[in-house]
Structures are given as C-alpha cells and as structure tokens.
Q: What sequence folds into this?
C-alpha cells in the first residue's frame, strides 16, 4: 500500500512525546492495516519511535536527507543512514527547507536520486506562494518545480508528491477542495506525460489539514491523502483523520 497519510512532526518531539503520541493514536485508530500511514519525526528520534511503534507496520521516514552519500558535511544525514534505521521514505523539498535552508530544485533533484538509490520513497513537496497564487501562477509554478526537480531523476522507481501551498501551511487557510483536486489532476498529468518511467504512487495535499476539513478533501477524486503538520502532533487527532481516510479506502 502506498503512503496516503503522513505526519510531519517538524522540530517537535521527545522520547516522552513518542510514548504519549502512540497511546493517543493506538487507542483511537480503528483500521486493520497501518501500511498507508507514515510518520516523519526528527531524525534523532527515528530509532526510538520505531521501538515505540513496535510490530505495527506504520512506515517511518525522515523530514530531509543530504544530497550526498558520505563526506565532509558536518551535521548532515544521508539516505543510507535513514535506510539503516528502517526508514522507507523521506520528505524532500518541503517549503520550509526551500525558504529557510535555500534548497533549490537542483539540490532537491540530487536528494531525490539519493533516496531512490537507497530504496527510500521520496515525498517531493511542491507549492506556490501567496503572491503566486493571487497572480494565478499556481499551475505554472508547480509545473516548473516538478519539471526542474525531476529533470535528472526521471527514472525514480517510486515517488509521492505533496502539494503544499506555502500560504496554507500552519495558517488555518486552505484552497477549496475542488481547486486542490484540479491541481492534483494537473500534477498527475505532468508526471505521466513528461516522466512516463516514474512510478508515481500518490499525490497528497498538505497545509492546515485537520479533523474538520479532512473528509471534504479526501472525498475528492485526485486527492489521495494528506501530509499533516500541526494536527499530526496529537496522536488522537491523527488517528481520527486516519479513520476517515481508511473508511473511504475500504468503500472504494
Ligand atoms: P500544517 O503543515 O499541517 O501544520 O499546515 C503541513 C506541512 O508543513 O507539511
């Protein structure tokens, strides 16, 4: 099962947090299978979280990887290292990495290749700014981000794309579900037509997803799931959102 609902914990967490989150999650999740779920904790806690999650096959991933495999690159973490800890995916090119850490599409492309070389599924994040959205440049900007990021990575064996409008992240604002659906349709078209060798598994939406808006998003044909920040920090809320998606998947 491909990744459909992913928690991005960003710069939050502790060993105690892992335990509390798991308690809240496992006492509220009603599905039989965990394989569509992923958690991206701070890399330092991957191993501990793995132990806390135990035998449940929730996928664990990182929020970032370096563009190199090894070398004199103080502070960095490679795809092979997260693979060694049992990770199966990594978020790549999140807008916070693009803005705060100056990640370009060229750098992101190298990270995608690193992930693929280590059998780690990349979740490539793309999204337009508020100004680009207001100027109706959304499709153009996303197309360019995708084409540049996949330029030298046109044979990725697996890929998940997360559409995350920069202005929707952590703001409580979202585009309406129909708008998101048409963006996702465009993303699928671009990847299929320009990069036919890439195995695109799912297109997730991210940006202020919560328990209240989850159903209206997941009901859309081309919204395969979500990448969730703030609302994923509460194990109970994440489980209730997972239940909504799980019910829809069971009906399909
Ligand atoms: P948010 O973050 O759910 O808190 O808006 C989403 C993300 O940044 O991936």
A:
């Amino acid at each position: 099962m491909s990744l459909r609902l992913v928690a991005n914990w960003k710069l939050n967490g502790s060993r105690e947090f892992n335990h509390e989150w798991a308690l809240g999650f496992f006492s509220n999740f009603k599905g039989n299978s965990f394989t569509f779920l992923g958690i991206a904790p701070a890399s330092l806690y991957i191993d501990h979280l793995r132990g806390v999650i135990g035998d449940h096959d929730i996928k664990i991933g990182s929020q970032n990887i370096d563009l190199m495999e090894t070398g004199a690159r103080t502070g960095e973490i490679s795809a092979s290292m997260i693979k060694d800890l049992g990770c199966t995916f990594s978020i790549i090119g999140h807008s916070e990495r693009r803005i705060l850490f100056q990640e370009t599409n060229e750098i992101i492309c190298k990270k995608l290749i690193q992930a693929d070389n280590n059998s780690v599924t990349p979740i490539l994040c793309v999204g337009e700014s508020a100004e680009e959205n207001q100027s109706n440049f959304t499709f153009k900007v996303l197309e360019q981000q995708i084409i540049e990021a996949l330029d030298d990575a046109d044979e990725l064996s697996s890929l998940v794309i997360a559409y995350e409008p920069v202005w929707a992240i952590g703001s409580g604002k979202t585009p309406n579900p129909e708008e998101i659906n048409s963006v996702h349709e465009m993303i699928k078209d671009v990847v299929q037509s320009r990069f036919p060798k890439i195995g695109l598994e799912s297109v997730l939406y991210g940006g202020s997803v919560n328990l209240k808006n989850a159903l209206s998003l997941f009901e859309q044909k081309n919204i395969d799931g979500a990448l969730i920040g703030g609302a994923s920090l509460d194990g109970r809320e994440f489980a209730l959102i997972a239940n909504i998606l799980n019910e829809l998947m069971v009906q399909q």
Summary: The first strand starts at residue 5 and ends at 8.
